[in-house]
Amino acid sequence: MKLKKVVAAAVFSSVLVGAVSVSAYSGSYTFDIGYQVSGTTKHSLASKSTSTTVSAQSYYHSGNIHPDKDAYSVQLYKNWTTYYTISNLVADNVSVTKQFGTISAGDYTINVTKNGGKADKIIGSGTINQ
User: Fold this and answer.
1) Residue 90 in contact with residue 69, Cβ under 8 Å?
2) Number of domains in the chain
3) What mean pLDDT comes out for the span 62-87?
């Protein structure tokens, strides 16, 4: 009877540890752009739900904050047929988390495009999360 309790406890512990040790990915990126930047850092991502948490601010060339806030988009780029884009982000220094959805596994780079003509540039950073 004692052996059954020990075996049951060991099985329960291994199941609990397996459930707790779920792997997650978080890769960072930064950008300082006047129009568009194509990233070079490869992010090796699994086929699962993927999001980005990103924040950016609109600036004059002088480095002062621009009162008008430009829109921008963030793209996970694998190849010319496989990419995922989040549009209508606003460079207003507010951190937001947006979903790309479930992506296909592979190596991706990050492309960021400034979609407005108000500010001279936008500067920001983010993370890719799985």
Assistant:
1) yes
2) 1
3) 97
